[in-house]
TrEMBL record:
Classification via InterPro entries: ADH-like_C, ADH-like_N, ER, GroES-like_sf, NAD(P)-bd_dom_sf, Quin_OxRdtase/zeta-crystal_CS, Zn-ADH-like_protein
Domain Enoyl reductase (ER): 15-333
Any one Pfam family match given in the protein's UniProt record, by short name: ADH_N
Protein name: Alcohol dehydrogenase superfamily, zinc-type
Length: 345
C-alpha cells in the first residue's frame, strides 16, 4: 500500500531532498490485530495544524521515528475480525487515530469507528472528527453555550474556527468572528456570522466594541481561542464578568498569559481543551459528540468547507497551505479519485 512516512523531524511543507516526509509505495498492509479489529480502506484523510506541529517535533505527543502521520479519516470497511458485530465489509465509516491515516489502509477497533450516514459523503466525513469535534466538545460540553450568549471566535477562517462559528450558530449564540483578509471575511459572512473583524484593516477591540454597542450588549461571554499570543491579550479586554475562555491552541506560536488576579476579580472560567485526551478520560462524551455532529451534517445544519484537496504525493503542498494560512476551512488528502474530488469541490 501507499503510506506517507515521517523519517525525521522538520518542515513537511518543504519540497526538496531535505523533506522529512516521503511516500512509501510498498508499505506493508496492516493486519487485523484483534477479534474486534476492522481494516478500513482510506478514501480521504484530513490535515490539522496538530499534524504539522507533530512532524516539526513541536507537538505535545512525540511518536518514535519513523511514523505515519494523520488523524481523522473516512473510507470503507475492507476486512473485519471474527468478533466484529457493528460493521461489515463495504460499510462507509469515519474515525480518528493518534497516527496512521496518511495511508491506503488503517486498522482500528470497531469501538473507534462511526458509521457515515446517508447525505454525508466520505470527504466531508473525513474532515469532521478533529476540527468539528474539538469545537463541539469545547462549546457544547465545556462552555454550555446558549442562545443568550455572545461568542467570539479567533482564527475563525481556519479548520476549528469555521467549525466553531457554525456550531455557535446552531446553538443560537450571537457570533463574532475574527479573521484576516477580504476573502475570509466574505466567507464568514456567508455563514451568517453576526459580525466579522478583518485584522488586516480593523482594530479588533474597537470593531467589537462598536458592534456590541449597536446591539446593546455588555460584552463577550465565551472566547474561543486557537490563536494565542497578542490577540488573546487584546480580546480579554472584551470579556464580560463571568465569561469563559476556551484555550484551544497557539497558532500564533506564542502562549498567552491569562492573569489569575483578573480571572479572580471578573469570575472568569478558563478551560483547557485537549480534544484527543477525551478518548482516554471521557470517551462517551467524545463518541456522543461525533454522532451528534454526523446527524447535523445529515440534517444540513453544518457544512464542511474544503479549500484544497491533494494526493498523497502532494502532501508538501497540503502542509504548505496549513503553514501559510491559505486555507479557509479544511485541507484534505484524497487517496484515490483525486481529479473527480477536486472537480466536485
Amino acid at each position: 500500500m501507499e503510506a506517507l512516512l515521517c523519517k525525521k523531524l522538520g518542515d513537511p511543507a518543504v519540497d526538496s531532498e531535505s523533506s522529512p516526509i516521503v511516500v512509501s509505495r510498498n508499505h506493508p498492509i496492516p493486519e487485523l490485530d484483534s477479534p474486534t479489529a476492522v481494516r478500513v480502506k482510506v478514501k480521504a484523510t484530513s490535515l490539522n495544524y496538530a499534524n504539522y506541529l507533530q512532524i516539526l517535533g513541536k507537538y505535545q505527543e512525540k511518536p518514535p521515528l519513523p511514523f505515519i502521520p494523520g488523524s481523522d479519516y473516512a473510507g470503507t470497511v475492507d476486512a473485519v475480525g471474527p468478533a466484529v458485530t457493528k460493521f461489515k465489509v463495504g460499510d462507509p465509516v469515519c474515525s480518528f487515530a493518534p497516527l496512521g491515516s496518511f495511508a491506503t489502509f488503517i486498522v482500528q477497533d470497531q469501538s473507534y469507528l462511526f458509521g457515515v450516514p446517508k447525505g454525508c459523503d466520505l470527504m466531508a466525513a473525513a474532515a469532521l472528527p478533529v476540527a468539528f469535534g474539538t469545537s463541539h466538545v469545547a462549546l457544547v460540553h465545556r462552555a454550555n453555550l446558549t442562545s443568550s450568549q455572545v461568542l467570539l471566535v479567533l482564527g475563525a477562517a481556519g479548520g476549528v474556527g469555521v467549525a466553531a462559528v457554525q456550531i455557535g450558530k446552531v446553538c443560537g449564540a450571537i457570533v463574532i468572528a475574527v479573521a484576516r483578509g477580504a476573502e475570509k471575511v466574505q466567507f464568514l459572512k456567508s455563514l451568517g456570522v453576526d459580525h466579522v473583524v478583518d485584522l488586516s484593516t480593523q482594530n479588533v477591540t474597537a470593531s467589537v466594541k462598536e458592534f456590541l454597542k449597536s446591539r446593546k450588549l455588555k460584552g463577550v461571554d465565551v472566547l474561543y481561542d486557537p490563536v494565542g499570543g497578542k490577540l488573546t491579550r487584546e480580546t480579554m479586554k472584551l470579556l464580560n464578568w463571568g465569561a469563559q475562555i476556551l484555550v484551544i491552541g497557539f497558532a500564533s506560536g506564542e502562549i498567552p498569559v491569562i492573569p489569575a488576579n483578573i480571572a479572580l476579580v471578573k469570575n472568569w472560567t478558563v478551560h483547557g481543551l485537549y480534544w484527543g485526551s477525551y478518548k482516554i478520560h471521557r470517551p462517551v462524551v467524545l463518541e456522543d459528540s461525533i454522532r451528534e455532529l454526523l446527524s447535523w451534517v445529515e440534517k444540513g445544519l453544518i457544512n464542511i468547507h474544503i479549500s484544497y484537496t491533494y494526493s498523497l504525493s502532494e502532501a508538501n503542498l497540503a502542509f504548505a497551505a496549513i503553514r501559510d494560512r491559505k486555507a479557509i476551512g479544511k485541507v484534505m488528502i484524497a487517496l484515490d479519485d483525486v481529479g473527480s474530488l477536486r472537480s466536485k469541490l
